[in-house]
Specification:
GO terms for molecular function: branched-chain amino acid transmembrane transporter activity. Helix 1 packs antiparallel against helix 2, helix 10 packs across helix 18 and helix 11 packs antiparallel against helix 12. By secondary structure, this protein is mostly helical. It starts with 26 loop residues before the first helix and ends in a 15-residue tail after the last helix.
Length: 608
């Protein structure tokens, strides 16, 4: 008997487990295109991209990149270096401890997005593609080639789920689309980086210094961008560039080294921050710096309440206002109802103590609530504070806060005879008013970080984490839930009041409208909560980085006018969709959102 067999039809689709790329170019050719495209991208930045200097940055000069060309140069150089590292070039393999392919895709995407954004911006602003010089066309072409080459690199395709024979056409389309999306995710995923070999202590400290210096340079460049197009390009390059370094494994290895020297890293970070005013030629950007520190300090205080204790507080900005009002009333302002002018330390203690008292008064009757009910009560407290401050104007109520006009003409602080309101000469540098307050807030931020670290590592900190994870189980284990939550509420409130003391003197005026639940500019309760969630709940660096981004980006995106909040909200939605654990996530929260990751052998008290 003869048995006939029919070979399965080849549909042309890559089989499961196939390591072909996303596009049909051989892998060796794609790698060459990506690497060569990175090199040519660097070369293109030394050509003129437009004929007129009307576009910001003066992109008309040959041999000298300027403006957005510098960002394309950085992205192109990163693409070329990672591409060479993928060939195993000696001296560059340390760049890709977790593999090169995913990092190369993100680096090529950074160069492509920045270059094409620049070309489109030139065409839109000057009136068409005719305003481009050959350098602009070359940059657009070579970055596209590099991106296509990187997409041709091999991808380990996941196994597809089988079709249900009873599925409709629409259900089959959704099934296929979901599988294709899993393939795209696999293309931009990387493996685990190899462990960092033991280095001499001085070498690891030098690496930490280099990382902090790079962070200071990037922050200084971003905050000093002089026009809107350059800042948007900076966001594109920095975002995809950081993703490339993260996928290469360098970020993980740097984190491993800094974890070995936590105290040195924290001290180095504050020293790097203290160097920021010395990188500025005037006081303009020190203004943004001091407001970022105020916002970040308040966010770190909220992180105790939300990140450690798991209490959703939607009216936290009211504690900042309580501290600011209390300090302004005892600092010698002519608008104050009290004829009292306390020194700096007295004002700080009054502001922190007032917020502490209000935290206890509000927390005592409400912290027996949980979840959404507690959130609604704290939201009500925030609005009650603002309305009450508006009504204490001598007409609707006692004349205490001067109503909507607020407490004005608040004098500058004097610390040990050092007047923070005037410029001072230091080592040939002129330190202006806002730089003085920047240094003061840096000290206060250091105090808040110390409180957060010590409390998180203490018995009360472990109780907070237990309450956050499962309050019923914590109560069953003998933890006094009400007492523990009240301490968290009181500590968080006092830290916000501490920052409010400085804010009152920096702004000269305290008004009720500064302390809204939501608004276009921070600090407000919505932005504070977003800073904690965006940065990473339960960590120290997370809220500091989240607050910096949430203050700096809206400040720089004012050209969007009415679309500012829309763009900002869209960015938050995308970030929470693709990285719900936050930018700086602890291991516990990362495992909550990425169950496929391997569990760490050891978790600390806060899961960090």
């Amino acid at each position: 008997m003869t048995t006939q067999t029919t070979a399965p039809k080849n549909t042309g689709a890559p089989a499961a487990g196939d390591a072909s790329g996303l596009i049909g170019i051989p892998a060796h050719i794609g790698r060459a295109l990506a690497t060569g495209g990175g090199v040519l991208t660097v070369v293109s930045t030394f050509l003129a991209w437009t004929w007129t200097a009307e576009f910001p940055g003066d992109l008309t000069v040959y041999g000298y990149p300027g403006g957005l060309q510098v960002l394309v140069l950085v992205a192109g150089a990163l693409t070329a270096l990672i591409g060479l590292a993928s060939y195993g070039v000696k001296g560059l393999r340390w760049l890709v401890p977790a593999g090169a392919d995913a990092a190369l895709r993100f680096a090529a995407l950074a160069a492509f997005a920045t270059a094409w954004y620049t070309v489109i911006a030139i065409s839109a602003q000057l009136g068409g593609l005719v305003n481009l010089e050959p350098g602009g066309y070359i940059a657009a072409a070579v970055t596209l080639i590099a991106l296509l080459g990187s997409l041709a690199l091999p991808v380990e395709r996941p196994e597809p789920d089988p079709f249900d024979p009873d599925d409709t056409g629409w259900e089959r389309f959704k099934h296929t689309s979901a599988h294709n999306w899993q393939i795209v995710k696999a293309a931009f995923a990387s493996g685990s980086p190899r462990p960092v070999r033991a280095l001499p202590s001085y070498a690891e400290i030098l690496i930490i210094v280099a990382v902090l210096a790079a962070g200071l340079f990037v922050f200084t460049y971003g905050i000093g961008t002089e026009y809107d197009e350059l800042f948007v390009g900076f966001l594109i390059t920095a975002g995809f560039g950081f993703a490339a370094l993260n996928k290469s494994g360098l970020i993980a290895q740097a984190s491993e080294i800094t974890a070995r020297h936590q105290n040195i890293t924290v001290c180095g970070a504050f020293i790097a921050a203290a160097c920021f005013p010395f990188t500025q030629s005037d006081d303009q950007y020190a203004t943004i710096g001091v407001y970022i520190l105020i916002f970040a300090t308040v966010a770190l205080g909220l992180n105790i309440v939300v990140g450690l204790a798991g209490l959703l507080d939607l009216g936290y900005v009211a504690f900042l206002g309580v501290g600011a009002y209390a300090a302004s009333m005892v600092s010698g302002s002519p608008s104050s109802p009290f004829d009292l002018h306390l020194p700096f330390w007295g004002a700080v203690l009054v502001g922190a103590a007032a917020s502490l008292v209000f935290g206890v008064l509000i927390g005592a009757p409400t912290l027996r609530l949980r979840g959404d009910y507690l959130a609604i009560v704290t939201l009500g407290f925030g609005e009650i504070f603002r309305i009450t401050a508006n009504n204490l104007d001598g007409t609707s109520g006692p004349d205490i806060t001067n109503g909507s006009n607020g407490i004005s003409s608040i004098p500058d602080l004097k610390v040990l005879g050092f007047d923070l309101g005037i410029a001072h000469e230091f080592g040939g540098f002129t330190i202006g008013r806002f730089a003085n307050y920047f240094f003061l807030m840096l000290v206060i931020t250091a105090v808040v970080v110390l409180v957060f670290r010590r409390s998180g590592d203490s018995r009360i900190g472990r109780a907070w984490v237990a309450i956050r994870e499962d309050e019923t189980a914590a109560l069953a284990m003998g933890i006094n839930g009400f007492r523990v939550k009240l301490i968290a509420f009181a500590v968080g409130a006092s830290l916000a009041g501490l920052a409010g003391t400085v804010q009152a003197h920096v702004t000269y005026t305290v008004t009720p409208e500064q302390y809204l639940f939501a608004g276009t500019t921070p600090p407000n309760s919505a932005f504070l909560l977003a800073a904690v969630v965006l940065g990473g709940m339960g960590t120290i660096a997370g809220p500091l980085i989240g607050a910096s981004l949430l203050f700096l980006i809206p400040n720089k995106l004012q050209f969007l006018d009415d679309y500012q909040l829309f763009a900002f909200g869209l960015a938050l939605v995308l970030l929470m969709r693709f990285r719900p654990e936050g930018l700086i996530a602890n291991r516990r929260r990362k495992l909550e959102f990425h169950e496929e990751d391997e569990a760490p052998a050891v978790l600390s008290k806060t899961g960090a």
